[in-house]
Design a protein that fits this description.
With 175 residues, the chain is an all-alpha fold. It is 73% helix and 0% strand. It has 11 helices and no strands. It is rod-shaped and about 105 Å long.
Length: 175
């Protein structure tokens, strides 16, 4: 439905815009949704710059960015933790989160030198445990592959091994 066809709805949204948009902001946890916020202000003819520079608006935006970053951290951890075998791999996740933070800061605070610590940092104890688990899985997998290698299951190779020759080789005199 196009809101142009529902003038009462559009009027209600305009009259209650800040309250409605702040409810929407409280539920946003995806990067792309957060980046649409300035366009929403533009669509309903509200000054995004004034809102983002107000104390209340700035705090709401910061809370939204924090929610987005925490969600991104959870998603990246879940997607990549099974493949992390060293701390550099874990650091790459936090580099991605920093890039998202930078992108959102530029999009949502375009006219302000924005610097905020969202407290999303690498949990070294968590990652040490994940790395150990992944290394153990990798070692077990390699060990299983080694044991299951068809070369060692080939009975003709094992049958052709002459035990007597091996014993003789142990006791051969050197000239």
């Amino acid at each position: 439905m196009n809101l142009g066809d529902a003038p009462q709805t559009r009027k209600y949204i305009k009259e209650n815009f800040i309250k409605l948009v702040e409810k929407i902001m409280a539920s946003i946890d995806e990067v792309e949704d957060a980046k649409l916020l300035p366009k929403l202000f533009e669509e309903y003819e509200f000054d995004y710059k004034d809102y983002s520079e107000s104390e209340s608006g700035s705090n709401k935006l910061i809370n939204m960015i924090e929610s987005v970053l925490l969600n991104a951290e959870d998603n990246l951890k879940n997607d990549k933790k099974g493949n992390i075998t060293d701390i550099d791999g874990a650091n790459e996740i936090y580099d991605e989160i920093a890039a998202i933070e930078n992108e959102l800061s530029k999009e949502l605070f375009p006219d302000v030198a924005f610097n905020c610590n969202f407290g999303i940092e690498i949990d070294e104890a968590y990652w040490a445990e994940i790395i150990d688990e992944n290394k153990m899985k990798q070692w077990k997998s390699e060990s299983d592959d080694y044991r299951n290698n068809s070369y060692y299951k080939n009975e003709s190779i094992l049958d052709s091994f002459n035990e007597d020759l091996a014993i003789d080789d142990l006791f051969v005199k050197s000239d």
